[in-house]
Amino acid sequence: MNKHMSQNTKGMIQLFILRFFAYAILIFLCILCLFFFYLMVVNSTRSNAQLARGFSLLPKEHFLENLVNAWNDASINIPRGMLNSLIIALSTAVLTTYFSALTAYGIHVYDFKFKKLAFTFIMAVMMIPAQVSALGFVQMMNKLHLNNSFIPLIIPGIAAPVVFFYMKQYMESVLPLEIIDAARVDGSNEFHTFNTIVLPILKPAIAVQMIFSFVSSWNNYFIPALLLDKAELKTVPIMIAQLRSADYSKFDMGKVYMFILLSILPVMITYIILSKSIIRGVTAGSVKG
Amino acid sequence: MKETKRKKDGRQSVSYAKWGYIFIAPFFLVYFVFTLIPQFLTIYNSFFETYRDGLKQIGPNFVGLQNYITLFTPDADGIIRILKYASNTMIMWVAGALPQFVIALLLAIFFTSYRLNIKGQGFFKTVIYMPNLIMAAAFSMLFFTLFTRGGPIQMYLAETGAINQTFDFFSNRVTVRGMIALMNFLMWFGNTTIVLMAGIMGIDQSLFESATLDGANAVQVFFKVTMPLLMPIFVYCLITAMIGGIQMFDVPQVLTKGNGAPDELSRTLVMYLNGYLTNKNYGMAGAISVIIFIITGILGGIVYKMLSAQYKDPEQK
């Protein structure tokens, strides 16, 4: 009895120590993740002179002033950049999710000769990054006079293998083929069935993938930087990179922190509101254990 | 009109094959125009000499494999640049990925352990996943402003005496690579944690129970039960992370203004490619693209095999 008791206490102490370490590690990592962004927010509330004095963890009162200065900056037109990025990212999100769902539906529901080949092809090209065809892409867009246009940044979103794969998996788990048969009996046209019956069933998957494609388009730097050189067409990441290459010492630093804050703000707000469903969406589409 | 036939299971099926083609047509059309043709153009370019000499356009002249030979021949300084940038990329990837996978595995175990019963998981996951969505260019710019000479972190560390007053984070190989690795780590460990966690939760719980009943301790359970069963997901994560690592660009490009300072020791393969693309040396850019294509192709092939193996066997969960 006594021995049993002491073993139990030993286990309790062991668990207590384990828990302590687990929480300590988690809290440390959370601080590490938030620290740099906290400094960014704090620094966006400080004036250039206050920033020159050094490090501080306390916010000051220059937030609005920095916001107005950044918003009206002559060389970096951030409101225009945000509008451009917003147009591109929203259009991409809509096209990517709609056409990925359409493609997945085409392969999931219908039987046709090249169905297997089509599926294999999409799976095989899934991991090929955009960079390795960037040269031909840029060359072709220049020839077609589509550089300095949003078209090459939006239309390719129609062919998104990863989103296709996610939609295909989602359909396998939630889409009963009987519903489609029933719609056919009711005389519904196939396209109409997809738009009015299937899309509403796919709503959760579409919402999650819309967020992911919005974010990756908003953050995309490599291809837009190669295509857009007109000032009024530049997107946010190009402007941020421009900020880095400009003569840095002349800048009002409060304004610089404000630019960085503005560039990540739309994504941050979306994340704060929808973090739960976003995190749930991360796992789908990868290998099952 | 439409041909109707009966399947073995008695479910009536009408041939709607035409619709299958119509529905997948936009995807394949767009892929063909915006990816496949550019891909062939890229490969085609790699066999030509095409560049700008001042305002003069040289080429395109067919040169066979000359661009590839140039790529692997030491330059005037005796350096084979592509190998230097490949090794930079690899060093920085490993420096970020090693802690990324160790920490992610540890956190995934914490989160799934019934014994530890970690509270506030939703909060922790929200915070650690957050950097994954941050614009890499902006994150990198933020690091630059914080760590540059006269930036708040550099000043603070100099004041406290942790570093020399004149210490410049951006002229030291270890600190530049370290910052890039740290950013990559911060951007990806949360994502890996969540994927590995889902993998662990997919393992049959009774296996853990019987192992514990047989007297296995936590460490034994991890190495004998968890890890072997988690292997497919773990390898999948590792290879997709490698493919991501080869594409490393935004962070070092913005952090070092594209020059890969100091002494090009933080210049990556894609920065090399981007350099040739911006000064319109399409021959060399083509050759580099093909090499990156081959490397990602091999890694992507492994991912494809893993995904399709899982796909053929829907029973496997």
Secondary structure layout plus pairing:
The complex is a heterodimer of chains A (289) and B (317).
Chain A: H1 2-43, H2 48-52, H3 63-71, H4 78-109, H5 115-125, H6 134-143, H7 151-154, H8 161-174, H9 177-185, H10 190-201, H11 203-219, H12 222-227, H13 236-245, H14 253-283
Helix pairs in contact in A: 3-14, 4-8, 4-11, 9-10, 11-14, 13-14
Chain B: E1 4-6, E2 12-14, H1 17-45, E3 48-53, E4 56-62, H2 66-71, H3 81-112, H4 121-129, H5 136-147, H6 152-159, H7 173-201, H8 205-213, H9 218-246, H10 250-255, H11 269-278, H12 282-312
Antiparallel strand pairs in B: 1-2, 3-4
Helix pairs in contact in B: 1-12, 3-7, 3-9, 4-7, 5-7, 7-9, 8-9, 9-12, 11-12
Describe, in short, the structure shown.
Chain A is mainly alpha-helical and 289 residues long. Chain A has helices spanning 2-43, 48-52, 63-71, 78-109, 115-125, 134-143, 151-154, 161-174, 177-185, 190-201, 203-219, 222-227, 236-245, 253-283.
What report would you give on this structure?
The complex is a heterodimer of chains A (289) and B (317). Chain A is mainly alpha-helical and 289 residues long. Chain A folds into two domains: 2-67, no CATH class; 75-283, MetI-like (MetI-like fold, Orthogonal Bundle). Chain A is 73% helix and 0% strand. Chain A has 14 helices and no strands. Chain A has helices at 2-43, 48-52, 63-71, 78-109, 115-125, 134-143, 151-154, 161-174, 177-185, 190-201, 203-219, 222-227, 236-245, 253-283. In chain A, α3 packs across α14 (253-283) and α11 runs antiparallel to α14 (253-283). Chain A is flat, with a radius of gyration of 25 Å. A two-stranded antiparallel sheet of chain B has the order 1-2. In chain B, 66% of the residues lie in helices and 6% in strands. The longest helix of chain B has 32 residues, at 81-112. Chain B has helices at 17-45, 66-71, 81-112, 121-129, 136-147, 152-159, 173-201, 205-213, 218-246, 250-255, 269-278, 282-312, and strands spanning 4-6, 12-14, 48-53, 56-62. Classes of the chains: A mainly alpha (289), B mainly alpha (317). At the A-B interface, α1, α4, α5, α6 and α8 of A face β2, α1, α3, α4 and α5 of B.
